[in-house]
Amino acid sequence: MTLTRRPEPGAYGAAPGRVATAAVLLAVVAVAHLLASGQPPGAVTGLLDGAADGRAEKIVWELGVPRLLTALLTGAALGASGYVLQAALRNPLAAPEFSGVNPGAVLGILGGLTLGLFPADSAAGALLAALAGGALGGGTTWLMSARRPPADLVVHGLLGSALLAGLTTMLLAYQPGRFGNALRWLIGSVDGRVWEHLALASWWIAGGVAVAWACSGVLAVLSPGDDHAASLGLHPGLGRAVALTTAIALTAGAASLSGAISFVGLVAPHAARRLGGRVLTAAATGAVLLAGADTLAQFAGHLLDGAHRLGVPTGVVTALAGAAVLIRLGRSQ
């Protein structure tokens, strides 16, 4: 399957109107997210007009804002990663969860916790473990699809993902007592992150998005086909390896924060292309989508369990919404 790319005159610089629209949309989603997080109703507005008391300010800054930033960073990383994968593999169904990278990253985190390689609250440990696991998952998929068309890599990615998911299940069954919080890694959740986690993940994800943006020219050359890339002097294998390494790094950063959030990396690139954008548009779209999904998850938590609030993992919302999009994409191919 080959992606159809339209001319994108604003590829490297967004039009002022688009930037303004994105800023307004992001602000609306951010305010709705903070209001949905269960903070006192006057806490958010109090911060805006300087009238918040110390307790309300502490609640917002230590609970609400880190959760919002976690959603934005994770969504941006997955959106950019998905765009890179779809362009480099020339497959509109390519996504971190369908290439073995995301399942591998989660397996790496849970494996590192099992072996005691890092404490459960270590941001650096989770990132390194996710990077190693993502590289293992992506590398396994790459080897399985060697000497085959790049578009076929997604098929082997699904097989590799199933294998990695099976290993993760075996790991959980072997020592179930060690994984009281395994659900957040397996399904995906942006809750429970603090500023220490964001301090590391923010620069990692920002750097990854910057590298992906710098590779926009390489992706544009790879998308039409390997013969086209070679005719322009680009070694297809080398260019694709750089792109996939960037995608693995971005996915690992997202997984170290929020676990296996699914379908954002699939949906955001399609939305970005409809908007006439590339990597940065996909990152911004992913950020807004995941923050919006978490807002819905928090509202659903209020509705399902009133005063006690049954937590609804964000990954549940993205999985339900993404499944519908996947069905539509599958029928259109």
UniProtKB/TrEMBL annotation:
Entries under InterPro entries matching the protein: ABC_BtuC-like, ABC_transptr_permease_BtuC
Entry superkingdom: Bacteria
Keywords, alphabetical: Cell membrane, Membrane, Transmembrane, Transmembrane helix, Transport
One Pfam assignment: FecCD
Topology in membrane: Multi-pass membrane protein
CDD domains linked: TM_ABC_iron-siderophores_like
Keyword Transcription in record: no
Transmembrane segments: 15-36, 68-89, 101-118, 125-145, 157-177, 242-267, 279-304, 310-329
Subcellular location: Cell membrane
PANTHER family named among the record's database cross-references: FE(3+) DICITRATE TRANSPORT SYSTEM PERMEASE PROTEIN FECD-RELATED, FERRIC ENTEROBACTIN TRANSPORT SYSTEM PERMEASE PROTEIN
Family of the protein in this entry: Belongs to the binding-protein-dependent transport system permease family. FecCD subfamily.
Protein name: Iron ABC transporter permease
Native organism: Planomonospora alba
